[in-house]
Design brief:
single chain; 2 domains; 390 residues; TIM Barrel; eight-stranded parallel β-barrel; four-stranded antiparallel sheet
C-alpha cells in the first residue's frame, strides 16, 4: 500500500519538505483556489504536480475535484457544469493524475460540533456531539423538523445546553459546524445558513439520488475512456444533517452506487472513520464486498456513544479493527498483482488525527495536524507491515 499525506497547497501551514520527512511518498491534494464549477487548467495542474515532484514525492490522488452545488440540486446551467467537470478530468489525466476522490454531500462536507475536544492523556480531537447538534438545529437554527431526528432524551439535554450556553459557546458551535463547508472557505451566520438550506428545500433522498445518477452518467464514461478512477467518499457523519438528505451513508447506499455504473471508473474511497461512525456499518464487511472497486483509502478511527455522538479516536484505539481492514486491503493488492495490474498498490493516508504536543501552535486545518497524523501514519505503517509479512 502506498503511504500518502493530504496537503492543502499554499493554504497549508505544513510544508512539502516536512511531509517528506514523515516517509510518505504520495501527496493527496487539489487546486483549492479554483472556484467550484470552473475548469482546472492543464498548466495549473502541471505546475502543482511539478512542485510536488521537486519535493521528492508524487501527486497520487486528487482530493477532490469538487462538485458545484447545482449538480447536487439538479439546478442551474448543468450542461456547462458537466462539460467543465469532464474537461478538468481530461486535463488531470493529461498530467498523470488518474485517481479522483469526491463526495456528494449536499452543502456541508464533514460535520463536527467540537474542533478541540480534550483527549484523555493530553491533546485534542474532533468531536460530533449529538446534544450540541440538536441544540444547534432546534434552538439556534430554529429547524422544528429536527425534533424527529433525535431521541427525546437528547432533545431534553440539548435544551439544557442551549439555556446554559453563553454567546461565545454558541459562536464556537457555529464556527465548528461551518468548518465543514467546502469551497473557498465561505462561512455563514445563522441567517445565511438558513438561506443556503432553503436552496435544498423540498428535495428528497430520491431526488438527490437521481441527481447523483445523472452525475455518474455524465462523467463515468469520460473517466473510463481516460483510464481514470473516480472514488466517492462516504458521508461524514453517515446520516442526514440539517434536513439535508445524505445518500452515501451505509452498505446499501454504496451497493447502489457501485451497481449504477459497473465500471472500474466508478469506485469507492474507503473511509473507515466516516463509515465507522454509523452504528449499522461494518467497515471491514463493506471493504471486503467492494475491494476491487476501492481506489483510495482514508484510515482513521472513531469511538461511538449510544446517543449518536462520536469522537476521533487514536488510529488503533477506536471501534474499527484496523488489523482486519489491513488484511482485506492487502489481500486485494495481492489479487491485483496476480492479475498483472501495474496499479496494484492502493494509496492510503492517515485521516484526521489528534492535535498533540506543538500541533496547537501550527494553526493547521482542523483534523489535519502534523504530529497527530504522523503518529497515525507510524502506527498504521507498523500494522500494515506486520500483516504483509505474516
Amino acid at each position: 500500500m502506498q503511504e500518502s499525506w493530504r496537503w492543502y497547497g499554499e493554504l497549508d501551514t505544513i510544508t512539502l519538505e516536512e511531509i517528506r520527512q514523515t516517509g510518505a511518498s504520495g501527496i493527496v491534494t487539489a487546486l483549492h483556489e479554483i472556484p467550484y464549477g470552473e475548469v482546472w487548467p492543464r498548466e495549473t495542474v502541471a505546475t502543482r504536480r511539478d512542485q510536488i515532484r521537486t519535493a521528492g514525492m508524487e501527486w497520487v490522488v486528487c482530493e477532490s475535484l469538487p462538485l458545484h452545488e447545482d449538480l447536487k440540486r439538479g439546478t442551474g446551467d448543468l450542461p456547462r457544469l458537466y462539460g467543465n467537470y469532464r474537461q478538468s478530468l481530461v486535463n488531470l489525466a493529461a498530467e498523470g493524475i488518474n485517481t479522483i476522490c469526491y463526495n456528494f454531500m449536499p452543502l456541508i462536507d464533514w460535520t463536527r460540533t467540537d474542533l478541540a475536544a480534550p483527549v484523555k492523556g493530553g491533546g485534542t480531537c474532533l468531536r460530533f456531539d449529538a446534544v450540541k447538534m440538536a441544540a444547534f438545529e432546534l434552538y439556534m437554527l430554529g429547524r422544528d423538523a429536527a425534533a424527529g431526528d433525535y431521541p427525546d432524551e437528547v432533545i431534553g439535554r440539548a435544551k439544557d445546553w442551549h439555556d446554559a450556553s453563553s454567546e461565545e459557546d454558541r459562536e464556537a458551535l457555529l464556527n465548528a459546524i461551518m468548518c465543514g463547508l467546502p469551497g473557498a472557505y465561505d462561512r455563514y451566520d445563522i441567517g445565511g445558513l438558513q438561506k443556503a438550506l432553503d436552496s435544498y428545500k423540498g428535495l428528497t433522498a430520491e431526488d438527490v439520488r437521481a441527481n447523483y445518477k445523472r452525475f455518474l452518467d455524465e462523467v463515468v464514461p469520460t473517466a473510463d475512456e481516460l483510464g481514470m478512477r473516480l472514488c466517492v467518499h462516504p458521508d461524514d457523519p453517515p446520516r442526514d444533517i440539517l434536513g439535508l438528505p445524505r445518500i452515501v451513508s451505509d452498505a446499501e447506499d454504496i451497493r447502489w452506487i457501485m451497481e449504477a455504473h459497473p465500471s472500474a471508473a466508478n469506485g469507492l474511497t474507503l473511509c473507515t472513520g466516516s463509515l465507522g461512525a454509523g452504528p449499522r456499518n461494518d467497515p471491514i464487511t463493506i471493504a471486503a464486498e467492494h475491494a476491487e472497486r476501492i481506489h483510495f483509502v482514508h484510515l482513521r478511527n472513531v469511538r461511538k456513544e449510544t446517543d449518536g455522538s462520536f469522537e476521533e479516536a487514536a488510529h488503533l484505539h477506536g471501534d474499527t479493527d484496523m488489523v482486519g481492514v489491513a488484511r482485506v486491503l492487502l489481500a486485494e493488492e495481492a489479487r491485483r498483482r496476480d492479475a498483472g495490474r501495474k496499479d496494484a498498490r492502493i494509496p492510503w493516508r492517515p485521516d484526521h488525527g489528534h492535535a498533540l504536543l506543538g500541533d496547537a501552535d501550527r494553526q493547521s486545518f482542523p483534523g489535519y495536524p502534523l504530529i497527530g497524523r504522523l503518529r497515525g501514519l507510524a502506527e498504521l505503517r507498523g500494522v500494515i507491515h506486520a500483516v504483509a509479512t505474516n
